[in-house]
């Protein structure tokens, strides 16, 4: 519906309306009027002839939507609103909550990595532990190994077995690292720490080899593992 209202100042007001809507919508001009009909309202028999006429508006959009079940339509609207609300809430939570992965970003702090690696050897120590051991929850263990003659060394992995050859290999590599990077260890304050680890392993390795004695002059004993 178009309404032309002329006053003394020749002011023209354009209005358009969707017939089932029951209300008038203002428009800037006749040619900018838009008619949108979703076919959501019941059609009156009196309007059949009117609907068959071409639209008088400059733009006419007919989506040809028909609601056959109001209950299902309401459920669809509520479900859509719930999904949209859930997406908004999740987006806000992801944006404002602290992300734990941000604290696990790859670091180039090699000093920290080296110190943590040396703590591993403190945790694997067997025997009577020194009072300055960095792993405080560990206590003395393996005090009866080899009838108390093979106390000390390092446990292998997470079990209670002490392997001789892996220990010898590890102590050798640690010793060579001190030879090559002695100033670096001293610079980060870990020189005495790694020396104590090397001494701990070396003292245990010396216990594994028993030289020939008077009772068995032609044979020696080498223990490969203790558990």
Give the SSE layout:
Layout: E1 14-16, E2 25-27, E3 34-37, H1 48-51, E4 59-62, H2 70-96, H3 110-123, E5 162-163, H4 164-180, H5 182-187, H6 191-208, E6 209-210, E7 221-222, E8 225-226
Parallel strand pairs: 3-4
Antiparallel strand pairs: 1-2, 5-8, 6-7
Can you tell me about this structure?
The relative contact order is 0.07. The N and C termini lie far apart (98 Å). 38% of the residues lie in helices and 10% in strands. The chain is elongated and about 110 Å long. With 227 residues, it is of the alpha+beta class. The longest helix has 27 residues, at 70-96. Helix 1 (48-51) links the parallel strand 3 (34-37) and strand 4 (59-62). It has helices at residues 48-51, 70-96, 110-123, 164-180, 182-187, 191-208, and strands at residues 14-16, 25-27, 34-37, 59-62, 162-163, 209-210, 221-222, 225-226. Strands 1-2 form a two-stranded antiparallel sheet. A two-stranded parallel ribbon has the order 3-4. The chain has six helices and eight strands.
Question: Could you name the key traits of this structure?
Answer:
227 residues; alpha+beta; two-stranded antiparallel sheet; 8 strands; disordered N terminus
Strands side by side in the biggest sheet: 1-2
Instruction: Report low-confidence residues grouped into runs of 5 or more.
Output: 1-7, 30-34
- What gross morphology would you assign? elongated
Portion of residues in beta strands equals 5-15%
Tell me the span between the first and last alpha carbons.
98 Å
Secondary structure: helix percent: 25-40%
What number is the mean pLDDT? 78
Using only C-alpha atoms, the radius of gyration works out to 44 Å
What structural class is derived from the secondary structure elements?
alpha+beta
Series of H and E elements: EEEHEHHEHHHEEE
Largest sheet: 2 strands, antiparallel
Can you count the beta strands? 8
Number of separate helices? 6
């Amino acid at each position: 519906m178009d309404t032309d209202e002329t006053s003394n100042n020749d002011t023209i007001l354009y209005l358009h309306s969707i017939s089932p809507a029951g209300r008038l919508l203002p428009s800037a001009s006749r040619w900018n009027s838009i008619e949108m009909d979703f076919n959501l309202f019941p059609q009156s028999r009196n309007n059949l002839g009117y609907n068959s006429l071409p639209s008088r508006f400059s733009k006419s959009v007919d989506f040809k939507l028909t609601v056959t079940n109001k209950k299902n339509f309401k459920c669809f609207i509520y479900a859509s609103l719930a999904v949209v609300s859930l997406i908004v809430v999740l987006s806000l939570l992801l944006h404002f909550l602290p992300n734990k992965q941000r604290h696990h970003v790859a670091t180039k702090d090699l000093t920290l990595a080296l110190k943590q690696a040396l703590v591993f050897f403190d945790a694997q120590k067997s025997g009577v532990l020194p009072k300055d051991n960095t792993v405080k929850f560990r206590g003395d263990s393996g005090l009866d190994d080899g009838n108390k003659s093979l106390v000390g060394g390092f446990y292998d992995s997470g079990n209670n077995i002490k392997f001789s050859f892996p220990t010898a290999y590890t102590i050798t590599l640690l010793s060579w690292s001190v030879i090559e990077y002695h100033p670096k260890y001293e610079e980060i304050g870990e020189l005495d720490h790694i020396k104590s680890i090397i001494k701990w392993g070396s003292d245990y390795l010396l216990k594994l080899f028993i030289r020939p004695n008077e009772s068995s002059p032609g044979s020696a004993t080498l223990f490969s593992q203790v558990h």
